[in-house]
Amino acid sequence: MSDRTRAHVFVSGTVQGVYYRANTRDTAREKGVDGWVKNLADGRVEAIFEGAEDVVEEMIEWCHTGSPAAEVEDVVVEYEEPRGEDGFEIQY
């Protein structure tokens, strides 16, 4: 697991109701990143990206734009120890 990294990401702006979660899931799956994404009650989107450092960084960079209809204002990233996420899902 030492070649894996884990990023805990919070995205703010107009990121709910614009297919942000679905686009995040699809992009993560295409890149082979594990984790999950969900909406928060305060209007932000929270995500976990776990995988090789380069693709996790690509996902973080992707979050700054997100889905075509999104208007991202901020992306906050906290790095954590990998926990063995497997697959990528939308959490509800």
From TrEMBL:
One of its GO terms (molecular function) is acylphosphatase activity. Pfam families: Acylphosphatase. The keyword Disulfide bond does not apply. SUPFAM superfamilies: Acylphosphatase/BLUF domain-like. The keyword Nucleotide-binding does not apply. It is an enzyme of class 3 (hydrolase). The active site is at 21, 39. Keywords: Hydrolase. Residues 6-92 form the Acylphosphatase-like domain. InterPro entries: Acylphosphatase (IPR020456), Acylphosphatase-like_dom (IPR001792), Acylphosphatase-like_dom_sf (IPR036046), Acylphosphatase_CS (IPR017968). It comes from the Archaea. Its EC number is 3.6.1.7. It catalyses: an acyl phosphate + H2O = a carboxylate + phosphate + H(+). Belongs to the acylphosphatase family. This is acylphosphatase.
